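Quick start: read one record
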Amino acid sequence: MILGAGATGLTLACSLLKKGIKDFLVLEAEEEAGGLCRSTEVDGSPFDIGGGHFLDVRRKAVDDFLFQYLPRDEWNEYERDSKIFIHDTYIGSPIEANIWQLSREEQVKYLKSIAIAGCNLEEPKPEKFTDWIYWKLGKRIAENYMLPYNSKMFGENLDELGTYWLEKLPDVSFDETLLSCLEQRAYGKQPAHAVFLYPKKYGYGEVWKRMAESLEDRLVCNCKVTKLDIDKKCVNERYEAERIICTVPWTGIEEISGVEDNILEMVRKELKSTSIVTEYHAENMETKAHWIYYPDPKLDYHRILVRHNFCEGSKGYWTETNADRYKGKAENTAFKNTYAYPLNTINKPGVMDRLLKAAEAKGCYGLGRWGEWQHYNSDVVVERAMEFVEKMEG
């Protein structure tokens, strides 16, 4: 049994079908599958309910798997153009590779700040996220961009976050930043989705919709998981299985039994997440960027997705805002995603390790963004689901 029909659950289910395994059910709380990758239509063109989701081209096996449902010729390919609005101007992202696009005076200030950052003075790596930002990028990038932006996205208490997850961030050295200023071009490793695919005629949700359709009556929608008995491998006192794969947020399940109470107490206490609201705006923006980051704390949103630059025939843009900050207008079309980003809190790895080991010992597995409580992109969860099925079969 698979709990949740987001990208992870759908990939699991479709992979099982490819293997000829048909005796399973997928339980989904919403009216339709897709999770954070769902799309709808707003103002005559696609709108991705869960914010910006794109298919990275770096994982060929993942892309080939998804092309079975939405063929390659139904996708457009783009070279990422992401911007940061800072110092009243737009510069490229990541900031440390693109400060050369600022004034000469600002470049000098940033370079001086980075030069004396802790990592460049061989100081030990800190354990807290806030301290790490200063240590890695220097005071000026920390206070003008990274800290205000992440506070808008993840919440004000950034000291709750650890540093174990920061491989997701671009890694640009001081030498590369200096070279970029001298040569007036970006240096360093490109961030995720440097080249990405997006459907030509649909929103990103189309591929997951087609996958869901292939499951036929094996997908049960409008079925929220409220009770999970890991000992009996029973869901909602109704559905029993030999194995359960959980891809839904553990904290969203009202009753869990079969795991030690102290582990469940830690789950409730330590596993945290943020909610986001996506909001549609009809006007087109005068930019070629695909998305733009906004660290300014006076703005409630932290990111804009410029859909007319990656979705053929569409217009307008949508904002992505932490639900606690959202100040949208009632007349604008908006969608709230209660579970958007799992927070990488300091104690989370230990809690998840204990939870997953205890559950796995009884035939219940956590997988994907929510099952593992990891900030995975959609291509990563597809890969992990495919690998899980291979190991299960092996």
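The domain at 2-80+196-393 is CATH 3.50.50.60 (FAD/NAD(P)-binding domain).
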